[in-house]
Amino acid sequence: MTLGTYSIGVGDRFAHQAKAQLEACMLAQKAGIEVIPVWNKSNREHTIISSEPAATRSSADAAVKALGWTKPYFCDADHINLTTVDRFLAVCDFFTIDVADYIGKPAEPASIDAFVDRHSELIGVIDLEGVPSGIEITPALLGKTAEKFLFAIQEAGKIYRKIEVSKGKGSFIPEVSMDETDSAQTPAELLIILAAIADEDIPIQTIAPKFSGRFNKGVDYVGDVEQFAGEMSLDMAAIRHAIALYGLPANLKLSVHSGSDKFSIYPAIHAAIKEFSTGVHLKTAGTTWLEEITGLAESGSHGLALAKEIYAEAFAHSEELCAPYATVIDIDPVRLPSPTDVNGWTSDQFTSALRHDQRSPAYNPSFRQLLHVGFKIAAKMGSRYLDLLEANEAVIARNVTENLYTRHIAPVFLGRQELGAPRPDFRTWDYSKKEIA
Ligand SMILES: [Zn+2]
Per DSSP, what are the bridge partners of residue 281? Predict the structure, then answer.
């Protein structure tokens, strides 16, 4: 089972938009590129809204059948570990093995020594094809990196083998993710990590490092775009090097856990995949849920009233809703409109505060982020929410498809600059600046 060059991870909190999401991949096909859909939903999300992975699978299957999609598609058990993987085993065929919690825990000293002895090829200045200067790994850095990551990769091996026993070798796509941790991994660390992954015999097809900068949920990237571009190109060069040296799968590529809507780095991602003739997996999170709210608000009457009610509830419970996402949201309480004000809003006022259009003066990122983490409110509403989704399917589907295609697929995979974001040139990045903030 092989993941294509370009793939997009789409989240669908309530398993109602698979068809609208797949429409976006069909638009890509019409534009001349193949973008493989991967429906991802993490264990955390399933737990928050009391859903089961089987529902994600059946809505994906139904969408594929309804639209006659003949290319591959996958269901991603997103951010799983040894204790949470079980309920995903039967229905998923893409597994994001999350080792972030194990980073920094030391492996057995003997296994660290053995790793360092086995990998003397990693010491020195390593020339990477496609970048102007190599990366330097000293014996001290190799040892320190093994101390920091080897245990985590050994855990990834255990999780991988558990999945392999259940599903059979080669019948699923394994990813290793390290994005939900405190500090970004440098390209040198990534190369060492890939050597360890090869030692564990995990045939990963995607790897998700943590990049520098902030990847807040549903809003734009906060950080140095030039630095991101340079870092990503070095990561791609390191991956290409590791494929050749360690026999990792030839289609191994970066997985960018974007948290959605990282518009300002999309041109850099596009430039890098072109430059390195490689692919990328763009994992988007919950903006489909926000498009549902946008569509409901746009529909007026009952839909708008429900959208306002969800905001009022989210406002009242903001502390509790934000807590699990503290490291990936930046809400300015002063910028949150009062529920009383919002109650007086028209459809247009609501949607223009919510829609991620940075050119619009009405766009309110704090309002958007609070609603982003507010899906638990809708989950509690149960059929009241789902019935309105179904009643307003057409307007919601249009928002979902348009958002995914125009704002994500077109800039990342087609290099279209609808959003007017500047295109950084990673070749101008200072490669001697190997420290990653
Ligand atoms: Zn992630």
Answer: 7, 255
Q: What is the largest CA-CA distance in the chain?
A: 68
Q: How far is ligand 1, taken at its centre, from the CA of residue 209, in Å?
A: 9
Q: How far, in Å, is the centroid of ligand 1 from the Cα of 228?
A: 17
Q: How far apart are CA 163 and CA 183, in angstroms?
A: 28
Give 351-393 pLDDT, tens digit per residue: 999 998 888 899 999 999 999 999 999 999 999 999 999 999 9
Distance CA 155, CA 81 (A): 9
Going from the Cα of 255 to the center of ligand 1, the distance in angstroms, rounded, reads 9
The Cα-based distances of 138 to 26, 89, 123, 211 in angstroms read 48, 41, 6, 22
How far away, in angstroms, is 167 Cα from ligand 1 center?
23
- Tokens 């518009």: give the residue: 263
- Between the CA of 76 and the centroid of ligand 1 the distance, in Å, is 12
Q: What is the 245 CA–ligand 1 centroid distance (Å)?
A: 27
Write the CA distances from 58 to 74, 143, 156, integer angstroms: 12, 46, 28
Alpha-carbon gap, residue 46 to 41, rounded angstroms: 7
| Ligand 1 centre distance from Cα of residue 380 (Å) | 25
CA of 197 to the centre of ligand 1 (A): 18
Given a cut of 90, whether residue 261 has pLDDT beyond it is: no
Q: State in Å: Cα 183 to ligand 1 middle.
A: 14
Tell me the Cα Rg of the chain.
Answer: 22
What are the percentages of helix, strand and coil residues in the chain, rounded to 5?
55, 10, 35
* CA angle, 66 then 68 then 73, to 5°: 95
- With 0-12 / 13-18 / 19 or more C-beta atoms within 10 angstroms meaning exposed / middle / buried, residue 405 is buried
Confidence of residue 245 (pLDDT cuts 50, 70, 90): very high
Render the burial of 62-95: b for 16+ CB within 10 Å, e for the rest: ebbeeeebeebbbbbbbbbbeebbeebbebbbbb
Residue 123 CA to ligand 1 center (angstroms) comes to 30
Q: Ligand 1 mean position to 179 CA, how many Å? A: 5
* Environment class of 301 (CB within 10 Å of its CB; exposed 0-12, middle 13-18, buried 19+): exposed
Instruction: Give the distance (Å) from ligand 1 centre to CA of residue 425.
Output: 26
Q: Report whether 309 contacts 350 (CB < 8 A).
A: no
